[in-house]
Amino acid sequence: MLLGRVVGTVVPCLVYEGLAGVPLLLVQPLERTGKPRGTPVVAADATKMAGPGELVMYEGGREAALALEPWFVPVDHSIVGLVDQVSREDWEPA
Amino acid sequence: MIIGRVKGEVVATIKHPAYANWRMLQLDRLDGQGRELGSYLVALAAVDAGIGQTVLVIDEGNSARQVVGDPQAPIRSVIIGIIDEITHA
């Protein structure tokens, strides 16, 4: 799992079967201290509760699809939790 | 398996049910000499590690799902050991 910040929403007009109704959010990956690093990815929101500005944890790869229902869907990043707190000494979220 | 150092705890109330009742720790990845690589992971604590400890981590889905006992859990990273010492030949 990695940490990310929701920076936008993605609205598709047509999706592959199984993905209808799954929220797609633009997630900016964070480095270990909470600063943004790298290119945003589009993640399916398995919690269905994340929104812009939210600190989230996401899973990539095969596990991303397993977070969804139905789980046999073509997805490579999924939000699996909304983070309340990171208790790291040098944590400095932007 | 990879080596990491526990740096903090991640707390989330709303999360996928497979993560319920597991502690989640943020750990920095280390190289073979124990130096920080600059990257990190958030992993479930299958053994009770504390902040500052060097730990053994699996970052592979099938073994992680074996640890949590759910063949469809969306989980990939699990702390499965605490490292006392690494010696180099």
Please sum up the structure shown.
Chain A has one helix and five strands; from the N terminus they run E-E-E-E-H-E. Chain A has one helix spanning 62-66, and strands at residues 2-10, 24-29, 41-45, 55-60, 77-86.
Write up what this structure looks like.
The complex is a heterodimer of chains A (94) and B (89). Chain A is mainly β and 94 residues long. Helix content of chain A is 5%, strand content 38%. Chain A contains 1 helix and 5 strands, in the order E-E-E-E-H-E. Chain A has one helix spanning 62-66, and strands at 2-10, 24-29, 41-45, 55-60, 77-86. A 5-stranded mixed β-barrel of chain A has the order 1-2-3-5-4. Chain A starts with a strand and ends in an 8-residue tail after the last strand. The mean pLDDT of chain A is 96. With 89 residues, chain B is mainly beta. Chain B has a 5-stranded mixed β-barrel. Chain B starts with a strand and ends in a 7-residue tail after the last strand. The A-B interface holds A 1-3, 31-32, 46-47, 49, 57, 59, 61-67, 71, 78, 80-89, 91 and B 7-16, 18-19, 24, 26, 28, 38-43, 51, 61, 64, 72-77. Strand 5 (77-86) of chain A pairs antiparallel with strand 1 (2-15) of chain B.
Shape assignment of chain A:
elongated
CATH class of chain B: Mainly Beta
Domain count of chain B: 1
Global mean pLDDT of chain B:
96
Number of helices of chain A: 1
Q: Give the helix tally of chain B.
A: 1
Q: How much beta of chain B, percentage-wise?
A: over 45%
Q: Find the count of extended strands of chain A (DSSP E, 2+ residues).
A: 5
- Derived from helix and strand composition plus strand pairing, the structural class of chain B reads mainly beta
CATH architecture of chain B: Beta Barrel
Average pLDDT across residues of chain A?
96
Radius of gyration of chain B: 13 Å
Strand order across the biggest sheet of chain A? 1-2-3-5-4
Uncertain regions of chain A: pLDDT < 50 for 5+ in a row? none
Order of helices and strands of chain A: EEEEHE
Helix share, percent of chain B = under 10%
Which segments of chain B are poorly predicted (pLDDT under 50) over 5 or more consecutive residues?
Answer: none
Share of helix among residues of chain A?
A: under 10%
- Compute the CA-based radius of gyration of chain A: 13 Å
Shape, per Cα inertia axes of chain B: globular
